[in-house]
Write a structure and sequence with these properties.
- It is a single chain.
- The chain is mainly beta and 454 residues long.
- It folds into four domains: 119 residues, Immunoglobulin-like; 65 residues, Dockerin domain (Type 1 dockerin domain, Orthogonal Bundle); 131 residues, Sandwich (Immunoglobulin-like); 69 residues, no CATH class.
- The protein is 13% helix and 33% strand.
- It is built from five helices and 27 strands.
- The strands form eight sheets. Strands 16, 17, 19, 22, 24 and 25 form a six-stranded mixed sheet that branches.
- The protein is elongated.
- The N and C termini lie far apart (150 Å).
């Protein structure tokens, strides 16, 4: 009897073991998946054959879920990452699959620093997705992930050096003004940039605004989006201009003795909103020849570039700042040789400033206003511009020479504005006397508003 009781007890215990899970499953909500032991993936992370020491590895799950691991040495191994992938099993006919899990037989893709990654299987075939084996629950699989070609580099790393830094920003500025070339073949050669990696703000162009964003990302500026890799297609959006205003004007200085014209491009930025800008100085090829173009010193701007030979009749330059500009900031200084003697009015006609693009710190368009040019007289200039310098005097019987501090140019070089004399002196005259005919009383140089002769 005793053995029979023991047998009955054993049978009853086994039945309970079988029935309990069935009861639990029966009581569970119908859509609850059955959890399975996680799938473990591990291995090295390479870029162009070299191990990466930082960054992230992401497993992209079939329904939009993502599992992320930090790239770092795994203790006691040569591996650089470990991923634990949640597995689930569902009832037949159940389609409400969890986005954060994977079923047996489904595929997983990978990214390294947001760039598509690949691996090589046991047969030497390069793949970009991993299918979870039917018996993969609780299993561990070795996958050495790698990047190669342009996908291995972050957006903004235009020289494909593996770092997105100020060197890339400088190259973009030089490309923007035509000092170096942009290429679409990979890898880029010396003094070139790889254009598909340039448009970091994704507005469809590669210019100074991208250089500014590269600098901001290099220093980890808060509130700035720093993508690691190009999106499938750049999204072109019109940035809404803000209320700040950039004030620009030219300062023109000529010296006939040296046959030089110096042009300074100055900017006022009242709200310190300036981030980046590209501008062009347009000149007459027949009258002027560019000699030199100098960027502003480093204490005024974070970075700048200038090209005096950008195109016939065009000097192009750009500048960027992460903190805005102070009033009167000199963006560039351009020197010209005068091919022919020029008067001041000719200097204005032969020089103009064109604004290609200006943006604020976030890459949004920055409105600008162009003021009238400023002329600087140079001592000894043989072609001066004369404002109405009139002489006030008391009539005198004695003649006296004109004061030496009043410049008297040759007749052929004068630009006459209303130069008038007191009525008592010239009342009987039909025309204003010339300098040689006019009595020379005691003279005091003064600047008068126009006074019409009676």
């Amino acid at each position: 009897m005793k053995p029979r009781l023991s047998l009955r007890l054993i049978l009853l215990t086994g039945l309970l073991v079988l029935v309990a899970p069935l009861q639990a499953l029966a009581q569970a909500p119908p859509d609850t998946p059955l959890p399975l032991p996680d799938l473990i993936l591990y291995g090295t992370v390479l870029r162009d054959g070299q191990p990466l020491s930082d960054g992230t590895v992401k497993a992209l799950l079939p329904r939009g879920g993502v599992v992320t691991a930090v790239i770092a040495p795994v203790s006691g191994t040569d591996y650089g990452y470990v991923l634990s992938i949640p597995l689930r099993q569902y009832d037949v006919g159940d389609t409400a699959y969890d986005a954060g899990s994977v079923r047996l037989g489904e595929n997983i893709t990978f990214q390294i620093n947001d760039a598509p990654a690949m691996f090589t299987d046991a047969n030497g075939v390069v793949l970009n997705s991993f299918m979870v084996p039917g018996d993969g629950n609780g299993g561990a699989y070795h996958l050495d992930l790698f990047l190669s070609g342009p996908d291995a580099y972050s957006l903004g790393d235009v020289n494909a050096s593996g770092r997105r830094d100020s060197g890339d920003a400088l190259l973009v500025l030089k490309y923007d003004v035509g000092l170096i070339e942009g290429v679409t073949s990979f890898p880029p050669g010396p003094r070139t940039i790889y254009l598909p990696l340039c448009d970091i703000i994704e507005d469809g162009v590669c210019n100074a605004s991208d250089a500014l964003r590269i600098l901001q990302c290099d220093v980890g500026m808060s509130g700035v989006e720093c993508p690691n890799h190009p999106t499938a297609a750049a999204i072109q959006e019109q940035n809404t201009p803000n209320e700040a205003l950039l004030l620009l004007h030219l300062q023109i200085e000529a010296d006939a003795a040296t046959e030089q014209v110096i042009v300074r491009v100055l900017a006022d930025d009242p709200q310190a909103a300036f981030g980046a800008g590209t501008l062009e100085l347009v000149y007459d090829l027949q009258q002027l020849t560019p000699v030199d173009c100098q960027e502003t010193s480093a204490d005024a701007l974070d970075m700048a570039s200038c090209n005096a030979d950008y195109a016939p009749g065009v000097v192009r330059f750009n500048a960027l700042s992460t903190t805005g500009l102070s009033d009167g900031t000199e963006l560039a200084t351009v020197s010209f040789h005068m091919n022919h003697p020029l008067g001041d009015d000719s200097r204005l006609q032969n020089l103009s400033l064109a604004i290609v693009d200006t943006s604020d710190h976030q890459g949004a368009g920055l409105p600008w206003q162009l003021a009238a040019p400023e002329l600087i007289p140079i001592p000894g200039d043989s072609n001066p511009l004369y404002l109405p310098l009139l002489w006030s005097f008391q009539a005198s019987q004695q003649s006296a020479p004109a004061p030496s501090d009043i410049p008297i140019p040759e007749e052929s070089q004068r630009l006459y504005l209303p130069l008038l004399f007191h009525a008592q002196v010239i009342a009987a005259a039909d025309v204003a006397p010339t300098a040689a005919q006019t009595p020379a009383p005691d003279l005091v140089p003064r600047l008068y508003l126009p006074e019409l002769r009676r």
